[in-house]
Write a structure and sequence with these properties.
10% helix; rod-shaped
């Protein structure tokens, strides 16, 4: 019967069965600003849900 020479560390043991996957970020087109922006985030021009929230560049 095979016996391991050394104990397997938690880091190596946990990396064996990983199911982590990269997911694409959700991007939507905003008709008001004409830009693409991520959902539930302020756009680069300072708009959120069609309303001006912040100054651009802040």
């Amino acid at each position: 019967m095979a016996v391991p020479a050394r104990r397997t560390s938690k880091a190596k043991k946990n990396k064996r069965r990983t199911h982590y996957k990269l997911t694409a970020k959700t991007v939507k087109f905003d008709e008001i600003t004409g830009d693409y922006s991520r959902s539930h985030r302020v756009s680069l021009k300072g708009y959120y849900k069609g309303r001006k929230i912040a100054k651009a560049g802040e």
